[in-house]
Amino acid sequence: xxxxxxxxSQVPVFExxxxxLRCNYSSSVSVYLFWYVQYPNQGLQLLLKYLSGSxxxxxxxxxxxxxxxxxTSFHLRKPSVHISDTAEYFCAVSPSNDYKLSFxxxxxxxxxx
Amino acid sequence: xxxxxxxxxxxxxxxxxxxxxxCTVEGTSNPNLYWxxxxxxxxxxxxxxxVGIGQISSExxxxxxxxxxxxxxxxxxxxxxxxxDSGFYLCAWNTAGAGGRGGYTFGSGTRLxxx
Lengths: 113, 115
Prior knowledge:
- The complex is a heterodimer of chains A (113) and B (115).
- With 113 residues, chain A is mainly beta.
- Chain A is built from no helices and twelve strands.
- Helix content of chain A is 0%, strand content 55%.
- The termini of chain B are far apart.
């Protein structure tokens, strides 16, 4: 079985500052990794995903994430945030031999001017 | 292109009333379908998933049930709602046979308030 831990439940950040959201996972098999964003009262939207290859993955809206197999982490970063990045962010993992995703508890990012 | 529709967007129902939420997917066939619930501050909870017509797996025992009467239709139901059923319900799908590599595509959600 897999599990996902998002280490920060809330992250306040000032506009134009960098942000990092931390995600660690555990799994006995190789995995695919995902980050989703959820704006208020909306569904989840895929930001980026890691399947294989380069460990640095670039996504939409200027976000990127780095897969670290030895540390079983998949941290999300953005060098300069905007007010519009205020949202909840979910890390998710899927074992390569299954089709279901396991989600972390989510991190709420609040960007202030 | 594939799209997922979920309705209604918001719903206010009295305790003890029935519930029916519908989700349909277009542009694909034989998808895996999922129902999730978000309660305030509690992340995403998988309620049901389905890998085919009439095939329903329940992840959490509760007051709800799910059905898949057609390939691309997934329905979440309750005979008698409880206050604790309030939350944000999300439908999602992914491609059968692709493993987990495609991730999920989510609907826009239904905000259910039981009063």
